[in-house]
Design brief:
This protein has 125 residues and is an all-alpha fold. 60% of the residues lie in helices and 0% in strands.
Length: 125
């Protein structure tokens, strides 16, 4: 039994590598089908709330720069399709095509972000 327990870290490593290998082609195919210049043009109205560089200065507006492209695309799609309800966002995204959403998501994800997390700020119990 202890021999099997010793193998668990190795199995976890193999699984993590396999998952990473599966994720890389998906991320690169998303980026390959997006047009950053088109995204930049589409992002002009977004600047009023989310900032010219995608890093909103008001805490009520999310920072878009540096976010994962697939997350941004999903959020925009959900706003457009009514699965996320926000009247302000709905008005901006209602006429976006799937390609427009990919372009916007890729544009913002490629920008340097000022995202913050709790890394190093959580005190262990």
């Amino acid at each position: 039994m202890s021999r099997l327990m010793n193998l668990i870290p190795d199995i976890k490593t193999v699984v993590q590598i396999a998952l990473l290998a599966l994720a890389i082609p998906a991320a690169s195919s998303f980026a390959a089908s997006a047009n950053l210049e088109a995204g930049k043009k589409l992002a002009q109205p977004c600047q009023a709330c989310h900032g010219a560089d995608g890093n909103a200065t008001q805490p009520i507006y999310p920072k878009l720069a540096g976010q994962y492209a697939d997350y941004l695309a999903r959020a925009l799609t959900e706003y457009r399709d009514g699965n996320r309800v926000n009247p302000i966002m709905a008005a901006f995204v209602e006429k976006l095509s799937d390609q427009d959403i990919k372009d916007l998501a890729a544009y913002y994800s490629a920008m340097p972000g000022q995202l913050d997390d709790l890394d190093g700020r959580m005190k262990p119990e």
